[in-house]
Amino acid sequence: MSDPNTGQRATPWTGQAALASPQRPRDGRFAAMVVSGVLAAALCVLALTLPVPYVVESPGPTFNTLGKDSGKPVIQVSGHPTYPADGSLDLVTVYLNGGPGNNLNIVAAYRAWLDSSKSVYPKELLFPPGTSQQQVSSQNAVAMSTSQEDATAAALTQLKIPYTTSLAVFALPDTSASKGKLKPDDVLLTINSHPITDITVIQDALASGAGKPVTISFRRGGSTSETTITPQPGAAGKFLLGVQLQSKFTFPFDVSIALSNVGGPSAGMMFALGIIDTLTPGNLTGGKHFAGTGTIDAGGNVGPIGGIDQKMIGAKHGGATVFFAPASNCNEVVGHVPDGLRVVKVSTLQQAYDDVRQIASGKDTSALPSCTAG
User: Fold this and answer.
1) Phi-psi category of 22—alpha, beta or left, where left has phi over 0 and alpha has psi -120 to 50?
2) Cα angle at 273 between 199 and 369, to 5 degrees?
3) What pLDDT digit, counting tens, does each position of 110-156 carry?
4) Is position 200 within any domain?
5) In the chain, which stretches have pLDDT less than 70?
6) Which residues of 307-343 are buried (b: 16+ CB within 10 A; e: fewer)?
7) 91 and 172 both lie in a single domain
8) pTM for the predicted model, two decimal places
9) Among 103, 97, 98, which Cα is nearest to 51's?
10) Which domain-ending residue is among 210, 228, 250?
11) 117 inside domain
12) Which domain holds residue 203?
């Protein structure tokens, strides 16, 4: 029969109350399994969301300094003849997972520990406490810009193309003796009427004055001004203006480097080699595939970098057969060279340039220096 209210088939009524079925006692094991499952799920969520104080470095992409990025030449020159070049002079990069604004979870850290192509470091080893993501981005951008300027200066020095150098204020600490008198980007011209050609001129003037006030002339924007600064005492009996200085170069033509989303100073040597090849006739690489890393200064000295294990792997994945490594990184190179990649250690741009030419020529290169454990 049907229930007139619902239209559904009703249960027949017998006129007697139905007897409840006796309940079985609950199984304690089932409850324990439920609790264990909930705890396991909670731990999984915690592992995926709880940050750990580590940073993972892994191989990044390579960029041919003789090629293009986003459809534009990486190295662009105006005001000087340029020459097309074949082959590759790759700069290498690393990916950084973790650090300020980019937290790493325990699962990602554990997987990186098991991956021989990656390195895991304590966060504080790479980033001082309190460092923000904005500070890291700003520092990397400044380091990249500075390395490009230094690379251009080093390349022109190598090619004996003259240019001028001046010293400018980069930053002033809050406790600086020059606070309120000098500003960032001020170009220092003279100290006590002596032309400032390099930092030793400033150091000599401060030492001879033994803490007495000095007169500094400087250029700010398009005008020249003069100020008097009383140096502050430093370590080992030295006296300081309390400013961080940077070199400012005036080149006879424009060299610009267009590279997106890459920061830091470690591409300097490869930029310099790419600039040299761009400015000179012929083909420096002989069509061969080189990669390398290293900071550079205006004098052509090659300095150490970080993440060289991952950079060698990235170079090999990018197709390079020869890799130039700073001599000061040799201890990290030994035992980590990928199969099929030859590593040549370099200390100067001149040496790297000569080594590229020798390898490109097809001559015997067995005497080129390689890394050994120190």
Assistant:
1) beta
2) 90
3) 888 898 889 888 888 888 888 888 888 878 887 888 889 999 999 99
4) yes
5) 1-49, 374
6) bbbbbbbbbbebebebbbbbbbbbebbeeebbeeeeb
7) no
8) 0.79
9) 103
10) 250
11) no
12) 164-250
